[in-house]
Amino acid sequence: MHTVDVDQENVSATLTVAAPAAKVFAVLADPxxxxxxxxxxxxxxAVDRAPLTEAGxxxxxxxxxxGHPNGNYQxxxxxxxIDPPRAISWLTGEEKDDGHLEFGGWFWRYDxxxxxxxxxxxxxxxxxxxxxxxxxxxxxFPPFGPEHLSNSLHHLAELVSGT
Length: 163
Fold this sequence. Notes:
Blueprint: E1 2-6, E2 10-17, H1 21-28, H2 34-37, E3 43-46, E4 58-64, E5 72-83, E6 87-95, E7 101-114, E8 120-127, H3 133-136, H4 147-161
Antiparallel strand pairs: 1-2, 2-8, 3-4, 4-5, 5-6, 6-7, 7-8
InterPro entries: START-like_dom_sf (IPR023393)
Protein name: Polyketide cyclase
Organism: Streptosporangium nondiastaticum
């Protein structure tokens, strides 16, 4: 089963994957898998490769977007929720030259619901409800079509099922 919902301030997609929740969670908590999971093609590499283990942990990703002023850029993500094997989420922002982290108000969240020993319903949500008007004036939200969330879930399903 696969669904996509678009709301005023968030978009989500749900897919049932053929893997236990703990295995799905372990893949999501590994920044080195995020490039393979990404449905937009923007995530290029994990700068910080340590597994995600606690709220407040920061992990950086090398990105590429043709519309970005530099093309290649880096984001700093900060874990907000980490509840193995049920939920994981992070805010996305950037690290300023002085090392200060600045977040734009959007986050990614995965919710996992076990459907038995070898299946998990995974819901991926991109939420921009906390983005201030000053950022909305120059960035469109969501910055991608809803199919990118579905693509991410299908990539995740392929990774965890080994196909």
